[in-house]
Structures are given as C-alpha cells and as structure tokens.
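Dear Dr. H.,

I hope your travels went smoothly. While you were away I took the liberty of generating a structure for the chain from your last submission, since the lab meeting agenda had it listed for discussion. I wanted you to have the full record in hand beforehand rather than looking at slides cold. The sequence, exactly as received, is reproduced here:
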Amino acid sequence: MHKSKLFLSTKLLVLTLTVCVNFASNAQDYPTKPIKMIVPYTPGGSIDNTCRLMADQLQRQLGQSIVIDNIPGASGLVGTLIAKKAKPDGYTLLCNASSQVYLPLVMSKKTYDAELDFTPIGQIGYVPLVVVVNNDIPVKTLADLVKLARSNPGKYTWATSGLGTTSNLSEEIFNRELSMGMEIIAYKGAVPQLTDVIGGHVSAAVSPMPGVSSFIQAGRLHAIGVTSKTRIPSMPDVPTVSESGLPGYELLSWYGIWAPANLPKSMTDRLNAEMSKAVDNPGLKAKFAGLSFVPNQSSADQFKTLIKDDLKKIGKIVKDAKIQID
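The corresponding predicted structure, in token form, is as follows:
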C-alpha cells in the first residue's frame, strides 16, 4: 500500500517536473514562429503608424516576423474582442492606444474588462493630439472656432476616429466645457476621419500627432490647437488648448501592447524587455521624434498601474460629461 502511494507520488512528481521543464524550455525558445499583432483600426492612422514602427523594430530583435493585422470596426471593438479570445500563447498581440481602456467606460453595454481580460505587456509612449480644421474655415485658433461655432449653431461638425477614443473624448469635452454644440460624426479610423475634414464634409477633428502630422505639413489641414500642456516644438505658433479657453487642460494619447489574459509571466517579461530595448533604439527614437511621439519605457507592472489610474481619471471625466454610447 505504501509502495503504491510512493510510486504514484513519484510518477506525479516526474510528470510535474517534465511539464515545468517543457514550459521553461518553450518560454526560453519563444518565439519560434511569426507573431500576429492586431491593430483594431484602418491602415495609415496614428495607431497603425506607431504600431508598425514598433513591430518592425521588435521583429529585428526577436528574429521572427510580426505580421500586422488591421481589424477595424465599432471604434476598435471588433479587433479588440478577437484579440481577447485568442490563445494566451504569445503569438497574438494587440497594439492599441489609450482608447483600449476608455472604450468600456463610455459604452452602455460592457463588452470587456480593460484590466481583467488582457495581459498588459508595456507602454510604447505617448503623444499630444492636434485640433485641425478644413482649410476653408476662417479660424486660426481653437478660440476662434469656439466663437464661430457659437454664432452659427448646427453649422459646424466634428469628425472622430471612433467613439470612446481620445479624439472623441476631447471633442465631447470641448463641446461641453466651451459650449460649442458641434455634432460629432464617428469614423472607422483616423484616415477616413481626416480625409472627410480635408474634403470639407466635416469641419474639424482632434487627432493624435503621428497620424495627422503629414496632412498638416502638406498644407491639407490647418492646425489650431494642441492638447499638451506646452506647445509642440515642430508647431510653435499653434497654441495649446489650455491657452485657448480651458486653463490647465491636458489629454494625451498613449500607446501600448497587450496579450490575451493569462499570458505566462515569462513571455510577458520577455516581450516587455524587448519593448524597452526597442524604444531605446536610436533609429526608432528618430522616427518617433519626427511624429512628435515620446517613447516611454515601462515595466508590465508600471503599465498596469497606468491603466488603473487612467480608469479612475477618465472615468470621472466620462461620468461628469455624461458621455455614453449605446
């Protein structure tokens, strides 16, 4: 009887050790095949541009291809839910902006938990947003647009890259705090959003710098405000929102990488270490600088804390502004 128990215990111990050794070996060898990185928006926008630059550097370091999979729809929700349901094996990642955290706050029906349904791997960095208008609109600053909108109720409109995004939240706050009364029209990403502002179908938009900078530089859109505390060095003549009627205002869009919930810690640590190495790469830093994007090294725990803090801060803004999407 005792021998039988001892035999079973020994077998169990051997099996456990074998599983642990195999797991450690798999984690150490990771990745052994291409990685899919889901970007839940259309190609060419701010999030897509940033994620592609990051993916390009990561695949050089990891020695495996990282394939960008653009899955737009429902303000990023479609791609996000596909990432949520994927296996937590390190071969499906999600690259998104702070809207990953904000979207559940503004939806009347909860579709995912920003803290529990994903494994935060690390922050890539952050960037200011820019208020832009169609070139035919006779304004030079956000304060000018406020006056124009107030004196012409219902005439001017906002375009947003998606409901629940930093773009959307900014426009909602401007409407509420500055009494602008401009209708907000939602698009499936920054490219269609900005294209319609350029075409004059919509009057104005708020968009992160990486996606809008090329349109401003080409003279296709006119910048009238930035959402950072201080002016952007590349656009010193463009006043901040804080200077334009909302003292102390700052709302930045930050970007990060997630995996499905329960990604093994060894893989999280490996990916986070590679992300930290990537954002410190001089070549990538130079590319980010051209987009006014500020790279930021963070541990997985620091990224988790950022998410928790933003849920509280933005949650209050959403509640006070009574922002809700059906």
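Two observations you may find useful: DSSP finds eleven helices and eleven strands in the chain. The domain at 31-127+254-321 is CATH 3.40.190.150 (D-Maltodextrin-Binding Protein; domain 2).

With kind regards,
E. W.
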